[in-house]
Amino acid sequence: MRRLLRFAAICLIGFSTFTPVLAQDPQTPVFRSGVELLEVDVNVVDGRGQPLADIRSPEFSVSVDGKSRKVVSSEFIRDDSVQAVEASAYKENPYVATNTDRPRGRLIIIVIDQNNITAGRARDLIVSVRKFVEQLPPPDRVALVAIPSPGPAVEFTASRQRIYQAMAGIRGTEDMKVDRYDVGEAEAIAMTNRGDEIVIRRLIDRECGSGTDQTCISELELESSRIVQRIRSRASESFYALGTLLGNLREAEGTKSMVLISQGFILDDVQSKTAQLAQTAAEARVNLNVMLLNDFPGDASNSRRSNTLREDRDLREEGLNSLAGKSRGALFQVTSSPEIAFERLPKEMAGHYLLGVEPRSGSTIRARREFRFTSREADSRAREDQVASLLRSPAAATELPMRLASYVFQDPESYKEKLLVAAEIDPAVTTGTADVIFAFVLFDVQGKPVNSGRERKISTLNGGAPVEYNFAITVAPGTYLLRFAGIDSTGRRGSLEHDVRVWQTAAPTVTVGDLMIGRVDPGSKAGALRPTVSTRIDNGQVAVYTEFYSGRPEALDGVSVMMELAESEAGPALLRAPAAIMPRVEGAGRQAAVVIPVSALPPGRYFARAIVSAAGQVVGRTSRPFDVVK
Q1: Is 510-630 in the same CATH topology as 107-349?
Q2: Cα–Cα dist 355/337, whole Å
Q3: CATH (residue range 1-20+386-506)
Q4: How confident is the model at residue 3 (pLDDT cuts 50, 70, 90)?
Q5: Which of 152, 420, 453, 488 has its CA 20 to 30 A from that of 611?
Q6: pLDDT, tens digit, 9 for 90 and up, residues 108-138
Q7: Is 479 strand, coil or helix?
Q8: CB-based burial of residue 1 (10 Å sphere; 0-12 exposed, 13-18 middle, 19+ buried)?
Q9: Distance separating the N- and C-terminal Cα atoms of the chain
Q10: Rounded distance, CA 196 to CA 254, Å?
């Protein structure tokens, strides 16, 4: 057991240690149910791209291999978080994270096919993509990936700023003309594959004249071969990169919406390869919309001007159009600015049905061309592997209700910043024991994991009281995202995310730690205080505690701390009391604590504040809410 913060009158207790998270092999999530299901997800939109949400069950029909299947139920699923009133009214709680009351957001991944986008078009994308992301509601998680690598890659995140910063790294290709002849892609393929003789003859006549200059024809064949090789190389790289990305998305639970932006790529065996990608997309529960950027006249990064623009565009469009059609998506042709397509996309992604439906006049159907029966079996993996999958998934698991709060103090041994975390879950039963595996990963602002841990805890249940769990880690000052997960012995799973700010506590000036609040039994001279998710005072007394530090010990001598209680974080004080100051039991710095009677306060939410002053000047403030109950 690692040593934790301790102090004289009020003690921090109950922390546990973690074992490191084991290496995590990608696993395909399995939905746990005992019902045999056929799931056909379908979009039905009107001419403006708005989903039609009033299709009745009798209007649905499904056939498999030409044979009609009975439609047991039909359900319209809203995917847009803006449809819920609580999404706009929801306010993030900076103190407590939970997986039970947060509005459900979408998982949207933007994929830039930088291998098949000219540098000029890539630059045009930055503004349009930013506008698209800006209009998404806060609960949505957005990812950005450039394929093939190397290129920017940001996993699903609520931070829009990370997406904007990554967009600046999109470069595209500088496809400057270096060949001697003007050969279009369709012409090069025809010449190399000895295809359409009319196309070949027209090319030879244009580039070599009407004569039979064999040297020119040989050079033309060689140049066509180089162009085809370049086409196949780029298409192959993008195809395999997209397939790998879709395969990796199996790990993220829930439906994902992918927006693939490309100027198109030409595939051999189009139907087979797009069917392969569509199957992987279905397994990963990804619906895929394609934004096809047409060549922009005057693009300096693409000085080659093909004589077969229409034929080239048709070849580039064929594969992407086939892929979108098989993946419950649509292909959007973009001639100039993609903003119109980006404005329509959120509407198309707003909702879907889980069954096939016959076209209604004036509507458009988006459905997967292929689907499979899937037996819903229990996840047979070890719980350690399942909780590792939860940590890799950006979607919150809600079967196991949980809440979490964090505190920042100075570690008494290393004098570094220590993050104390308190979590609690609601067990399914009220008697016996709860066997839960907990795990966490702490990510920095760049999305890189900086700390992780896992532990199994068996707790004796106490009626309907939550199961509490605490841990502590030492971490450098900065802004982090804490992802926390748990799974009990029955397979109930829960996960959540919590934004964490760790400020510097080691400095020549006076710095202040977090505020801790607790319940103290009346008449007791010393009580126990530990980090909790939330504090409920039902006995008329609240204990309030903080710490302050300085690299110059003499700077602490004149410090005073006033504790206040108010109805809001910045509201006027209802009660005030000076804190008793004493040295910390371990480490440098001082601790300040006081017990304040609150029996006169009516039930409700209040805020406790610590105002730290030195030489008559306020040098720090910290606050935290608590509830008075009767």
Answers
A1: no
A2: 34
A3: 2.60.40.10
A4: very low
A5: 420
A6: 999 999 888 888 788 778 888 888 898 888 8
A7: strand
A8: exposed
A9: 37
A10: 46
d(C-alpha 398, C-alpha 493), whole Å: 7
Evaluate whether 422 touches 468 at the Cβ level (below 8 Å): yes
Give 614's strand partners.
559, 617
Contacts 24+ apart (CB under 8 A), 208-216: none
| CB contact at 8 A, 437 and 494 | no
Any idea which residue has 């003007």 for tokens?
182
Domain ranges of the chain: 1-20+386-506, 107-349, 510-630
Q: What is the mean pLDDT of the chain?
A: 80
The confidence score (pLDDT) of residue 329 equals: 80
Which single residue is written with the structure tokens 């964490």?
500
Block residue for tokens 């799974």: 487
Check whether the bond before 297 is cis (ω within 30° of 0).
no
- CATH classification of 107-349 is 3.40.50.410, yes or no? yes
pTM over 0.85: no
In contact, 224 and 183? CB cutoff 8 Å: yes
The closest alpha carbon to 407, from 511, 529, 514, belongs to: 514
Other C-beta atoms lying within 10 Å of the C-beta of residue 335: 12
Between the alpha carbon of residue 232 and those of residues 115, 170, 236, 432, the distances in Å are 12, 22, 6, 63
pLDDT in tens, 131-157: 889 888 888 889 999 998 888 898 888
The tens digit of pLDDT for each residue in 197-212 reads 888 888 888 888 766 7
Distance from C-alpha of 534 to C-alpha of 177, rounded to nearest angstrom? 65
Q: What is the DSSP string of 333-351?
A: EESS-THHHHHHHHHHTSE
Q: Token match 């939860």: residue?
A: 390
Chain center to CA of 293:
27
Residue position matching structure tokens 């098989």:
326
Distances, alpha carbon 479 to alpha carbons 276, 448, 450, 475, 502, in Å:
41, 12, 12, 10, 6
- Is 510-630 CATH 3.40.50.620? no
CA-derived radius of gyration, the chain: 31
